[in-house]
Amino acid sequence: MQFRPFNPPVRTLMGPGPSDVHPRILEAMSRPTIGHLDPAFIQMMEEVKTLLQYAFQTKNELTMPVSAPGSAGMETCFANLVEPGDQVIVCQNGVFGGRMKENVERCGGIPIMVEDTWGEAVDPDKLETALKANPEACIVAFVHAETSTGAQSDAETLVKLAHQYDCLTIVDAVTSLGGTPIKVDEWEIDAIYSGTQKCLSCTPGLSPVSFNERALEKIRNRKQKVQSWFMDLNLVMGYWGGGAKRAYHHTAPINALYGLHEALLMLQEEGLENAWARHQKNHLALRAGLEAMGLTFIVNEGDRLPQLNAVSIPEGVDDGAVRSRLLNEYNLEIGAGLGALAGKVWRIGLMGHASRAENILLCISSLEAILSEMGADISQGVAIPAMQKALAQA
Predict the structure, then answer these.
(1) Which end of the chain has fewer CB atoms within 10 angstroms, the N or the C?
(2) For position 247, what pLDDT does the model report?
(3) Residue 248, pLDDT score
């Protein structure tokens, strides 16, 4: 069989991730590869750490990108902080809380589950009940921005509760970093992980993490070695630690880090608060158009993520057929529901470079055209004016 170079179609990515990658980032990734111990590369690593500290709003010295996707950032947090026998309270209100539970179990820990309905924020009262009932618990883990539902939980309140009961916290910020407020130092988050392919407008493959001194103290005093050699922070920090002298640990994904550096530089140029405001403004415009059409959100307004919108599929509409037509006819990708929400919702992302007015217009107009042709019970001709009015008022 004769193969040819792969030329991907040009898509507009408005699903749960990856999101559209900014051309500046793609250009940065095409620059010449140099060695992972080259002094010039090490200087760039230092800049990446500083820029990540800004994105996370932290001064944590241990702030860096793990050389793998967001799932590896999650594993890095759990593998380093959870030891066999540790009781870990895991708050689950969607798919990714379940993955936290899996990590606890694989590290030999004992998960204590706090369950909330999918589409709702984590209930602080339920967490406090679990903390009171399990005085031996040493860690609380929760998802700040649940990608499977578009629900955002009150991280500041949950962390404060955990600390009242002498627990460390592990926070999933994969979908929130760069799109909605995260204040690691102000909220006193102990360990946090994210991904590059969502609101940072970068390619998949890196996972920013940050650990404060409380978390590092637990890591230093482990009774057993970290079960993963690759993710053992005691070893990784020999490479990502401060200063010009670095110990070889692994060959970093050099060109991917060029891209992350550019993405973080762009975030700094825009300003964090401006990025948060842009995502909220565009969410309100998308919401106005979808609701005018007759579509409804599954998350209460106060708990909605602006960058990940879960909307109910109209009765009688074929989920897969709509998404297939959007992809094939409009080169537009939106996401399907996961787990209990499969076939019931669409997940529409407005993340990073994808959070633009022209993308909202494409999404609303193409959805309206397809649903109208399918005979769905929607209002026609009102969605785009509603969207435009919302943008003008923002």
Answers:
(1) N
(2) 81
(3) 84
Q: What is the number of other CB atoms lying within 10 angstroms of the CB of residue 272?
A: 17
**C-alpha distance from residue 179 to each of 42, 54, 106, 147, 321 (Å):** 28, 14, 31, 13, 30
Residue ranges at the known binding site: 347
Copy the structure tokens of residue 273.
């608060």
Q: Which helix (H) or strand (E) holds 245?
A: none
Q: Confirm if 169 and 162 have CB atoms less than 8 A apart.
A: yes
Question: From the CB of residue 137, how many other CB atoms can be counted at a distance below 10 Å?
Answer: 20
- Tell me the one-letter amino acid at 143: V
| Class for the domain spanning 23-269 | alpha beta
Domain boundaries, the chain: 23-269, 272-393
Q: What does the DSSP 8-state code read for residue 353?
A: G
Residue 10 CA to residue 20 CA, distance in Å, equals 10
Q: Is the pLDDT of residue 101 over 60?
A: yes
Architecture of domain 272-393: Alpha-Beta Complex (3.90)
Q: What is the pLDDT of residues 379-392, one digit of tens each?
A: 999 999 999 999 99
Cα(185)–Cα(58) distance, rounded to whole angstroms?
A: 5
Give the residues across from 146 on adjacent strands: 151
Q: In sequence order, what DSSP letters do the residues of 286-318 get, joined into one string?
A: HHHHHHHHT--BSS-GGGB-TTEEEEEPPTT--
Q: Give me Rg for the CA atoms of the chain.
A: 21
Binding residues for substrate: 347
Read off the pTM: 0.96
In degrees and rounded to multiples of 5, residue 150 shows phi and psi of 80, 20
Going through the chain in order, the beta strands assigned E by DSSP cover: 12-13, 62-66, 87-92, 110-115, 139-143, 145-146, 151-152, 168-172, 191-193, 207-211, 308-312, 332-333, 335-336, 345-349
CA distances from 92 to 99, 132, 209, 310 (A): 9, 18, 21, 17
What three-state secondary structure class fits 220? Answer: helix
Is the four-CA dihedral 56, 60, 65, 70 of positive or negative sign? negative
Residue 366's pLDDT is 98
Tens-place pLDDT, residues 284-339:
999 999 999 999 999 999 999 999 999 999 999 999 999 999 999 999 999 999 98
The CA distance from 143 to 389, in Å, is 33
- DSSP at 190: S
